């Protein structure tokens, strides 16, 4: 195994001066050196082999003992020094102080084909940031992160990646529902990969500690390696940097809304400085279209992180980042302008995104109303978002009366009231009228719509079925879903059973509808 190691983060930024591994407050440092725990009987469950090659692994590497040892934390790659990153964060709207990598350990950075990647083991044992946690992860949450991050990538949603999923051979005690019924579960480690794992919270912790020197170093480092087109650091560059982070965050959220992804825990420590989806915990996919839905049981009361609130929360989180960067800029106006711009840009891009989902490409100022009416209709009776938009592309320009029957597969109820049917027929008349203005043929429009409306997403119950099998040592379904989700926009007839509504048994089953943070 020959990797092109290229360490920058630990070279450029201050390390915690304490070398022992015990829980503590870390001062004036961006990371602490720490070694992964040794696992008793590691076993590779799955590898994202195509992605592995883009990191510079050879195909033969992936089957080697050395690879397993690397991704389970049992051996350290020569001349590398693993570390946990320091960051803070606002959790559920409140400043939580130091959080940090409590159960993630960075191995090293690779530079391959001019692209930088940091490799990180999630669930590799305690670090100075573990607080009361054990630093470990269980198989179920690891499968969820592994499958979903790769699925998101293939959907075209900016995200961290996953290289491998391994069992540790150790048992981990978890109280999954927080109801006093703790049980042992199989421990697992995902090797996840990102150009960098720096978060909004990485800046917030330094600003909170008034460590402006390190804050500046971190901003300069981030710009140099990941926003290098902005040029040499200066006040103006920091402003541009913030503007670009806002833009990328906005793009990410628009993608989430397009595919019906709900992150579930949009705390500022879970916001990547690169605008990538990061930290897959109690996330979920919309089945019935519903702005009020959240998968996270911990958030069930206030639903802060519900589907429809994700854009507002992204903006709220950007305010926190702006506050953290303020000491480097000392001028609130340009930051406020950028935050205001976010709102305007969101309206424009959100409209654009919805128009593309509907196959509307010509200019028309009535589209906003058409989309509003559509969203109202989608809420009338439980309507599967993925099936609705996918089926919609089959409609022909001159067949408004066919609309309802084409999309009725998306309704969860067996019978739909006359009133609701009328509302849909009314909408379809408007929609088909609007389609008359489009230059594209029906076939061309269908093709374009199918590039933005996925056929297959990782429905919550699908992940749970893969988990149930994997816990019995059967990984076939995990592999099937992994493979299918590499081409989410293509019709794959052999996977027809996955283009279907959530089965009724899954409606209230743990893991299929609501999830706790326990992982
Ligand atoms: P999350 O909500 O999963 O992003 O985690 C919030 C914070 O809790 C982060 O600092 C994590 O590193 C930490 N954390 C979560 N689970 C554990 C665990 N099992 N052991 C140690 N720290 C954890
Ligand atoms: Mg996190």
UniProtKB/TrEMBL annotation:
Cofactor(s) required, per the database record: Mg(2+); Mn(2+)
Query: Which keywords has UniProt assigned to this entry?
Result: ATP-binding, Magnesium, Manganese, Metal-binding, Nucleotide-binding, Nucleotidyltransferase, Transferase
Q: What NCBIfam families has UniProt attached to this entry?
A: PRK00029.1
Annotated active site residues, numbered on this chain, are 269
**What does it catalyze?**
L-tyrosyl-[protein] + UTP = O-(5'-uridylyl)-L-tyrosyl-[protein] + diphosphate; L-threonyl-[protein] + ATP = 3-O-(5'-adenylyl)-L-threonyl-[protein] + diphosphate; L-seryl-[protein] + ATP = 3-O-(5'-adenylyl)-L-seryl-[protein] + diphosphate; L-tyrosyl-[protein] + ATP = O-(5'-adenylyl)-L-tyrosyl-[protein] + diphosphate
Question: What is its EC class?
Answer: transferase
For binding Mg(2+), which residues are annotated in this chain's numbering?
270, 279
Q: What does this protein do?
A: Nucleotidyltransferase involved in the post-translational modification of proteins. It can catalyze the addition of adenosine monophosphate (AMP) or uridine monophosphate (UMP) to a protein, resulting in modifications known as AMPylation and UMPylation.
**Protein name, please?**
Protein nucleotidyltransferase YdiU
Q: Which family does it belong to?
A: Belongs to the SELO family.
Taxonomic source organism: Mangrovimonas spongiae
Q: Is Nucleotidyltransferase set as a keyword in this record?
A: yes
């Amino acid at each position: 195994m020959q990797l092109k190691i290229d360490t920058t983060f630990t070279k450029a930024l201050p390390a915690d001066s304490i070398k022992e591994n015990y829980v503590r407050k870390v001062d004036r440092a961006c990371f602490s050196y720490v070694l992964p725990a040794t696992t008793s009987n590691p076993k590779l469950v799955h590898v994202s082999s195509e992605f592995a090659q883009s990191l510079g692994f050879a195909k033969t590497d992936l089957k080697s003992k050395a690879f397993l040892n690397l991704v389970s934390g049992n051996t350290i790659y020569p001349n590398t020094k693993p570390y946990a990153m320091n960051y803070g964060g606002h959790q559920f709207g409140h400043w939580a102080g130091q959080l940090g990598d409590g159960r993630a350990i960075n191995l090293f950075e690779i530079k391959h084909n001019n692209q930088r990647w940091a490799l990180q083991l999630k669930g590799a044992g305690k670090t100075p940031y573990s607080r009361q946690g054990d630093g470990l992860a269980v198989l179920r949450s690891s499968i969820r992160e592994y499958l979903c991050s790769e699925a998101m990538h293939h959907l075209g949603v900016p995200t961290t990646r996953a290289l491998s999923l391994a069992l540790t051979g150790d048992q981990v005690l978890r109280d999954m529902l927080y109801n006093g019924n703790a049980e042992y579960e199989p421990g697992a480690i995902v090797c996840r990969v990102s150009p960098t794992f720096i978060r909004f919270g990485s800046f917030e912790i330094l600003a909170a500690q008034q460590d402006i020197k390190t804050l500046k170093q971190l901003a300069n480092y981030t710009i140099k390696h990941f926003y290098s087109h902005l040029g040499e650091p200066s006040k103006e560059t920091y402003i541009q940097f913030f503007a670009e982070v806002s833009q990328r965050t906005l793009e990410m959220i628009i993608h989430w809304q397009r595919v019906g992804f709900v992150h579930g825990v949009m705390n500022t420590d879970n916001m990547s400085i690169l605008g990538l989806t990061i930290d897959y915990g109690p996330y979920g996919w919309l089945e019935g279209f519903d702005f009020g839905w959240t998968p996270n049981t911990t958030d069930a009361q206030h639903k802060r992180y519900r589907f429809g609130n994700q854009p507002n929360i992204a903006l709220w989180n950007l305010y926190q980042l702006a506050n953290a960067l303020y000491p480097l800029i000392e001028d609130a106006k340009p930051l406020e302008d950028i935050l205001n711009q976010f709102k305007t840009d969101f309206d424009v891009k959100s409209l654009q995104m919805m128009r593309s989902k509907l196959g509307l490409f010509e200019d028309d100022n009535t589209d906003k109303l058409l989309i509003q009416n559509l969203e109202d209709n989608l809420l009338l009776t439980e309507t599967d978002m993925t099936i609705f938009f996918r089926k919609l592309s089959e409609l022909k320009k001159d067949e408004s009366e066919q609309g309802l029957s084409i999309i009725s597969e998306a309704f969860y109820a067996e019978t739909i009231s006359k009133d609701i049917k009328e509302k849909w027929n009314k909408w379809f008349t408007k929609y088909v009228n609007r389609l008359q203005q489009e230059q594209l043929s029906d076939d061309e429009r269908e093709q374009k719509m199918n590039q933005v409306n996925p056929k297959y997403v990782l429905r919550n119950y699908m992940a749970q079925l893969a988990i149930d099998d994997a816990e019995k040592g059967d990984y076939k379904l995990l592999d099937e879903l992994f493979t299918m989700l590499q081409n989410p926009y293509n019709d794959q007839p052999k996977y027809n059973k996955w283009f279907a509504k959530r089965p009724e048994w899954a409606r209230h089953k743990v893991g299929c509808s609501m999830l706790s943070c326990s992982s």
